[in-house]
Amino acid sequence: MRLKKVMLVFRKDWLEISRNWQVILPIVILPFIFSVLLPILVSMVPGSTGTSPENLEEITRNLPSQVKNKLVGMTNQQIMFYITTLYLFAPFFIIIPIMAPSAIASDSFAGEKERRTIEALLATPISDTEMFLGKTLVSFIPTMTVTIASFITYSAIVNLYSTTMFKWKPLLPNLTWLTMIFLLSPTVALASIGLTVMVSAKVKGVREAQQISAVLLIPIIILVIIQASGAVFIGPSMITALTGIFAAIDFLVIYLGVKMFRREEILSKLA
Amino acid sequence: MSVIEVTGLTKKFGSLVAVDHLDFEVWRGEVFGLLGPNGAGKTTTIRMLACLISPSEGSARVNGQDIVEEPLKVRETVGILTENPCLYERLTAYENLDFFAEAYGVTDPLEKRERIRELFDFFGLWERRNEKVASFSRGMKQKLAIARALVHRPPILFLDEPTAGLDPESSKEIRDLIERLSRKEKCTILLCTHRLEDAEKLANRVMIINKGRNIATGSPEQLSERITGQPVVEVKLVKLNRKVLNAVKNLSQALKVESFKDKILITVENPKSATPEIVKGIVYAGGEILTVKTLRPSLEEAYLKLVKGESS
Prior knowledge:
The structure holds two protein chains of two kinds.
Chain A: H1 3-17, H2 21-44, H3 53-62, H4 65-71, H5 76-88, H6 92-99, H7 102-114, H8 118-122, H9 128-165, H10 175-202, H11 206-214, H12 217-229, H13 236-259, H14 263-268
Chain B: E1 2-13, E2 16-27, E3 31-35, H1 42-49, E4 57-62, E5 65-66, H2 71-77, E6 78-81, H3 93-103, H4 109-123, H5 138-150, E7 156-160, H6 168-184, E8 188-193, H7 196-202, E9 205-210, E10 213-218, H8 220-228, E11 232-237, H9 242-249, E12 256-260, E13 263-267, H10 271-284, E14 289-295, H11 299-311
Parallel strand pairs in B: 3-8, 3-9, 6-7, 7-8
Antiparallel strand pairs in B: 1-2, 1-4, 4-5, 9-10, 11-13, 11-14, 12-13
């Protein structure tokens, strides 16, 4: 495998994508909602989370003792802000690396088929592995960039409000968030992108690829619901375990993606 | 010396046999035409030779490399103009060539810049190099796509329907460019077309294929003569009489003589040497000539006969 060729595919695709607002917007909008609008909403109207004192009690009951200890002495408003911004919203930042690259990854091969540019690309002496990795990378790098940027923005906004609410004590970053953003997010992103690129190579059009890859969101949405209900606490150890699982999935996806990459099959699916 | 050797090349898509045991050779420096109606198997043949799809049976060597064993090496040595221009419309013309140059291994910045400049100059696109391809006309896109196929100086060029979808003026321009190109770049060209004009004007040799099978191979002239017969000299007179007709029939080079009103049609082997003899004979016999012209059987007639014959 020649890294230069991988980067060549990446550069070409990025140049194209950066000039296509239909693909760029989904990468930007979702992280903006999660990182800017959500913390502002929670901070401005603490009661708007819709959580009653009874529900609050139920959520805090399921929290591990080390978190419960941190809540001692806090007002209800502080507890709500603390739990919502640090724990309930955390899984949303796992949705970003899944949803943000969906448009780019779906477009990777299916878009080239729709625009009828794929044949010339397949005719080049770029190997299957180089092409697959190049197409994966063009979704992965922007995704991780917006995920990290969203995390920084979110942390800044949360800390801004926490200065008044918690007397200058910044809440983020903490170990849970750091492991989630820098360990779990890349592995989740890679698995989701790899699978979507694989689907994109197999189907005829971008819409088909997007619909199939949307199914990938279901397990993560279940995770978000579980976390939001307070049934499970996602802490650093769970994140590390999930990272291990997703890393194994990543290897499998990349291996299968390259193995199942068939130029002939791609050509036969020209719209 | 052959640079493309094809032996028993076959491609099946389920029960459909798209290419059926093709055998042919393309010699270094020649323009070899693959001529046939739509769906004859021309594009499938080119795709197999460019290692885009694999053959079901048979083998082929392109520039000495086996298409199944060494697909990457084959791709490095060929340039391909696909049926569609396959250009990135959001990129500029320069960005398109720049990407493909690197993809084909032209990585030295100076060499790459010079080659791109040379191609833009040749195709008359230098002034439009920084414009997005989306704003180009179909003819300009086709020129750019040919330039892309040539960017790495391939010794072998596959051109799949280079004039398809173009207006007559653009078609002629592309044909002239290919003609100049084959002389300037000195590369072997495998031209795939359903346009007889393209094959007749550009190809040294032509293979007519239908339903994936080779029907006939030869130079356009050879095929025309073989299928539709020898050339005919047509002489139009002020008035045709028996004396003139007998004089023509007695000429040594006249193989067959037919007359219609004041016109004589003389089948000959070599019109160049026969025409002066015919004119002299008619004038000596007292005939007054209005016009003389040579009627050559066209490739079109040969093609239609062959393809119709196959279909029936």
